[in-house]
Predict the structure of dihydropteroate synthase.
Amino acid sequence: MAIINVTPDSFFAGSRTFGCEAIEQRVREAIEQGCDLFDVGGYSSRPGAEDVPLEEEWRRVETGLGIIRQLVPTMPVSVDTFRAEVARRAIEHFGSILINDISAGELDPAIIDVAARYDVPYIAMHMRGTPASMQRMTDYHDIVEDVLDYFDRKVAKLHSHGVRQIVLDPGFGFAKTLEQNYELLRGLHRLCEKGYPVLAGVSRKSMIYKLLDTTPDQALPGTIALGWECLRQGARILRVHDVREAVDTVRIFNAFQS
């Protein structure tokens, strides 16, 4: 999954594609490098991120989705939003897409009904609070058990609302300390055993660069290492900034497995 950040303030400066020319270049490069799907976001979810008005988020998302549909009309694409209205507009304007919701319906419960009404795949991520407050909400009894219990309840709710296609994302870096991220990674296989596709988003995150005392710009080797471990434990989707390296990782992993 290639990240298309239509934002001026994403945590990794190299991923900011704020403008039509930058978006088009990013999309063309990702296609050439072998991505399987795109994820378009217009609202930065980095820790401490400020709120973005709905209409501004939609303007950004509409621009990104429009360019992708123009260049690769049949390529699967998701919209990275927690707002029901943005998801609804995206589906009605651009057809069937995935909804990638960092809050799993906690911030805007109506988004679950949008996923059910249009029968689109719904990616539910574990997070507490909002991007602005999440890093103050890291008190867990047992991070792995708590996340597993959360998804048991969440999946039941999604099914009760009529959502049929569910993907789970443990939410690395969202309302988790550095140590908790690695505890959660160690138990990732338990989430994968629940029978739903699991998306792993570890690309250039603070669990890499804070551990190594570097920066997001220097976190590609760590991203590759953690990507392999996520695949080894059963993750089905890697959400990444660096497509070529992720594609190579998947190809080598598949060869190793076979």
